[in-house]
From TrEMBL:
Recorded GO CC terms: cytosol
UniProt xrefs under InterPro entries: GH (IPR017853), GH_1_N_CS (IPR033132), Glyco_hydro_1 (IPR001360)
Family, similarity comment: Belongs to the glycosyl hydrolase 1 family.
Name listed for the protein in its UniProt record: 6-phospho-beta-glucosidase
Keyword match Hydrolase: yes
PANTHER family in alphabetical order: 6-PHOSPHO-BETA-GLUCOSIDASE ASCB-RELATED, GLYCOSYL HYDROLASE
Record GO terms (molecular function): beta-glucosidase activity
């Protein structure tokens, strides 16, 4: 069959951002503190020793809660999207965005998570945002939980460890469906739900100190189970409330290769990849995989379930699968094998791949492998909802940002996406991370830049916050305008 150069008709090209990394306005219009608002800045010097775990001891949390400034907490500042969203949306529309993935800050709608009534100022902000997106013809994709739960729920309940948090989340989600269902067809429940094991506080408000010694991992699995149940419950509600709704799960795709073909490396790698798929297994297939259940049992981990939980999971599976993809890594039985950081992981270095300024290994073909692997396993429509390259952009003497490295990164990944589509993968959309510079999730740096649009702000929050197009802006605009065909004319 003759393949066209274009992506499928109606392909959703766009970008992705998260409330806690862009909005700022952390303490106005009734917003409560979220776990992101106490996430500290990790200085440039620690780039290579990047450790994604935020300081989450009770003393540190108390200190942060009492600090009325944003000095150490860049996510309190974001990029002032709260006030500049019209300007930003206009630039996204100029690039031709068909879609924009955002998240709704739970603590802007329910400041402590426990209120019975939603904060009207928060609701108003999102109404205005969605109205503007509609006016510009940009289809929203909304994540309900993207590393920004109300801090009060974390402190009072140890986050998702307590089953009661399910009820608060269901209330929040239902307010979102009732208020914004008229604008939003695509919903994602939890961003990178698997990340709970890598940063339990950021993902699920779990404070290690609150666990009984030795039961920390058990608590994390319990919190995860509550998120699975909550995800299924709100999927059911969305299906009942919003016509033609599509609810998706969201996975960090951490593609792992064996460093060598030694069977030991192959087995370790297979297990890593099975673990990585487990989260989507539950959300797409509606049940815990037998191998994972056995693994938990062998580890002495017992997840407390209500009698109906398995039924809830089975009956309310998601409609599509989304994932983030930034890098791949290798695995080896050799404990001395050289390692390099990736997206909140420290993987074995693959000698065949280049890496970013942050050591993340660049692997476009790994995206194609991931697409085929995931589609073969789940057979549901898929979207890539995060992919991009964090880099230290500099302004050249002509006053412009020539980010050819970013264009090269995207070009190579898009070509692999197209090959996967031509081989039969049902890929319906792609949102780059991030179309505009924003505060890094892992390091809270502004200097780790992802955007097609530059934001004049530094790590300490100095700068005009003015926006400026990088070279990649025009390039991406052309890709969208030609629905991908321009990739093959360059
Ligand atoms: C993903 C998160 C995003 C985003 C991205 C890049 O895991 O969902 O919020 O920030 O990673 O990571 P970082 O910002 O640490 O470079």
């Amino acid at each position: 069959m003759q393949q066209t150069k274009q992506f499928p008709k109606g392909f959703l090209w766009g970008g992705a951002i998260a409330a806690n990394q862009v909005e700022g306005a952390w303490n106005i219009d009734g917003k409560g503190l979220s776990v992101a608002d106490i996430d500290t800045y990790k200085p440039k010097a620690s780039n290579k020793d990047y450790n994604a775990h935020v300081a989450t001891n009770l003393e540190g949390i108390k200190k942060a809660m009492e600090d009325p400034t944003d000095t150490w907490y860049p996510k309190r500042r974001g990029i002032d999207f709260y006030h500049r969203y019209k300007e930003d949306l206009a630039m996204f529309a100029e690039m031709g965005f068909k879609t924009l993935r955002i998240s709704i800050a739970w603590s802007r709608v329910f400041p402590t998570g426990e209120e019975l009534e939603a904060n009207s100022e928060g609701i108003k902000f999102y109404h205005n945002l969605f109205k503007e997106m509609k006016r510009l013809g940009i289809e929203p994709i909304v994540t309900l939980s993207h590393y920004e739960m109300p801090l009060a729920l974390s402190v009072k309940y140890n986050g998702w460890v307590d089953r009661q948090v399910i009820d608060y989340f269901v209330r929040f989600a239902n307010v979102c469906f009732d208020e914004f269902g008229q604008y939003v067809k695509y919903w994602l429940t939890f961003n990178e739900i698997d990340s709970i094991h890598r940063h339990p506080f950021k993902t699920a408000g779990v404070i290690e100190e609150k666990s009984v010694a030795g039961e920390e991992i058990q608590d994390v699995y319990q919190a995860l189970h509550h998120q699975f149940v909550a995800s299924a419950l709100v999927t059911k509600d969305a299906h009942e409330k919003i016509p033609e709704v599509m609810v998706g799960c969201m996975l960090t795709k951490l593609m792992t290769y064996p460093l060598t073909c030694a069977p030991q490396d192959v087995e370790l790698t297979m297990k890593k990849n099975l673990e990585n798929n487990f989260y989507a297994d539950v959300q797409v297939k509606g049940e815990y995989p037998r191998l994972i259940e056995c693994h938990l049992k062998n580890k002495g981990i017992h997840i407390a379930m209500e009698p109906d939980d398995r039924h809830i999971l089975k009956e309310n599976t998601v409609d599509f699968l989304t994932f983030s993809y930034y890098m791949s890594m290798a695995e080896s039985g050799d404990s001395e094998a050289e390692r390099t950081p990736g997206n909140t992981v420290l993987g074995v270095k693959n000698p065949y791949l280049p890496e970013t300024d942050w050591g993340w290994q660049i692997d476009p073909q790994g995206l194609k492998i991931s697409l085929i692997d995931l589609y073969d396993r789940y057979q549901v429509p898929m979207m890539i909802v995060e992919n991009g390259m964090g880099a230290m952009d500099t302004i050249s003497s002509d006053g412009k940002i020539h980010d050819d490295y970013r264009i090269d990164y995207f070009r190579a990944h898009f070509k692999q996406m197209k090959e996967a589509i031509d081989e039969g993968v049902d890929l319906i959309g792609y949102t780059s991370w991030a179309p505009i510079d924003l505060v890094s999730a892992g390091t809270s740096q502004m200097s780790k830049r992802y955007g097609f649009i530059y934001v004049d702000a530094d790590d300490e929050g100095n700068g005009s916050y003015d926006r400026m197009k990088k070279d990649s802006f025009d390039w991406y605009q052309n890709i969208i305008r030609t629905n991908g065909a321009a990739l093959f004319d360059e």
